[in-house]
Write a structure and sequence with these properties.
The protein is 33% helix and 15% strand. By secondary structure, the protein is of the alpha/beta class. The chain has a single domain (8-279), classed as TIM Barrel (Alpha-Beta Barrel). A nine-stranded parallel beta sheet has the order 6-5-4-3-2-1-9-8-7. Helix 8 links the parallel strand 5 and strand 6 (192-193). It is globular.
Length: 286
């Protein structure tokens, strides 16, 4: 029996960039329709405003309604949790995050991304406790959300249309995570290890640790600034196909793959995303 390949989704990290206007976005396209334009050309996008501050439910609803069915959002977890609390005593912060609106995305809610700062070393006990606290279903996330504090009063989304699995991915940036104990921990917790191309400024980890693979392309030559050549895009397309059909996975099992371009400094990200999406047209996409 032939195993079906995983679903592949390609997009950008954020979409509201002035330099894209009149370049990727047609001149005259109103700002409120930029995400709609993304949704017509890509299959996913990262919501990165949630990294900097808690967003509002009405924003998530607007984003959800701006894109077609099958489009999926990854949501970046708050830096308050990853950079300030350093994953410690994060219970209330997690409640506030999940109460702030990501559950309003419904079937368009994809993985939650947790990006660690480069100064954050591998601390097994702290990390394992944090990973254990993450909800694995939207129903579990809703229960966590109900524990929000008074700062979220009047600006919460506390409902789901149905219970669905919830995925998580983590992007470490310290060499100390090149530890077999780390990848084993992620496999036990079913959390994806982000494959991050960051112009060699940060280490690239590529172990497959979950039922999905999460890729962030920050630029191969200059962090956040350089575009990808046709040859580089061909290479990434080959890697994505291998993860999706299982030939690039140690157990041979196909994985869903999420790929996001974050090389937006000079406006390359959306063009590279469309180019990679075209190369992967033969791979089923949700």
């Amino acid at each position: 029996m032939t195993t079906a390949p995983g679903l592949v989704r390609v997009g950008v990290s954020g979409w509201r960039y002035p330099s894209w206007r009149g370049d990727f976005y047609p001149r005259g396209l109103v700002q409120r329709r930029e995400l709609e334009y993304i949704g017509e050309r890509m299959s996913s996008a990262e919501i990165n405003g949630s990294f900097y501050s808690l967003q509002r439910p009405e924003s998530y609803v607007r984003w959800r309604d701006s894109v077609p069915g099958g489009f999926v959002f990854a949501v970046k977890g708050p830096r308050y949790i990853t950079h300030m609390l350093r994953l410690r005593s994060a219970g209330t912060a997690l409640s506030n995050f999940f109460a702030s609106g990501p559950l309003a995305l419904g079937p368009k809610l994809g993985p939650i991304l947790w990006q660690l700062p480069a100064r954050h070393p591998f601390e097994p006990d702290t990390l394992d406790a944090f990973l254990a606290s993450l909800p694995r279903t939207t129903a579990a996330a809703l229960e966590i959300a109900r524990g929000h504090d008074s700062r979220l009063t009047g600006r919460t989304w506390l409902e789901i249309d149905e219970d669905r699995p919830l995925r998580h991915a983590i992007e470490p940036r310290s060499e100390s995570f090149a530890d077999p104990a780390f990848t084993e921990m992620l496999r036990e917790r079913d959390v994806a290890l982000v494959v991050a191309d960051s112009a060699q400024k940060f280490p690239m980890f590529d172990a497959v640790t979950s039922d999905h693979v999460y890729v962030r392309l920050h630029g191969s030559q200059e962090l956040y600034m350089s575009g990808y050549t046709a040859e580089e895009l061909d290479e990434w397309a080959a890697r994505v196909r291998a993860w999706a059909d299982g030939t690039g996975c140690p157990d041979g099992v196909p994985r869903d793959v999420y790929v996001y371009f974050d090389n937006d400094g000079r406006g390359f990200a959306p063009h590279d995303a469309v180019a990679l999406e075209a190369r992967l047209a033969a791979v089923p996409a949700g």
